[in-house]
UniProtKB/TrEMBL annotation:
It comes from Promicromonospora aerolata. Residues 1-21 are annotated as: Disordered. Residues 29-103 form the YlxR domain. This is YlxR family protein. Transmembrane segments: none annotated. Pfam families: YlxR.
């Protein structure tokens, strides 16, 4: 008889993530900069500025911090640390998370983190 019901390490019940599970229950998001998982309340949500109908003067679309995490549209989550924002910029993770092409203006986000 063959071995039935045995799962390999890559089977459907295999562990999917190597990140530690946060001890507190609630919504968990991934930082686009450091790729670390954290509580939704510990991260900042970044969204495209919906008030601008066209591109800005420099041709870059503006990214704003969604403090209340309730603005419409796709969001990118980042830890409120300049290091994570720099990593996200270097990896070009914010445009990828927002599914947009072209340059993005992160000046308002930098000013928010500088406070």
């Amino acid at each position: 008889m063959g071995r039935r019901g045995r799962l390999s390490e890559s089977g459907p019940r295999a562990r999917l993530s190597t990140y530690p599970v946060p001890p507190v229950k609630g919504p968990v998001r991934t930082c686009v900069g450091c790729r670390g998982r954290d509580q939704r309340t510990a991260l900042l949500r970044l969204v495209l500025d919906a008030s601008m109908h066209g591109d800005s003067v420099a041709g870059a679309r503006r990214i704003v911090v969604d403090v209340r995490a309730c603005l419409p549209g796709r969001g990118a989550w980042v830890h409120p640390e300049p290091r994570c924002l720099e990593l996200a910029e270097r990896r070009r993770a914010v445009p990828r998370a927002l599914r947009v092409d072209g340059p993005l203006d992160l000046g308002e986000v930098r000013a928010h983190l500088g406070q």
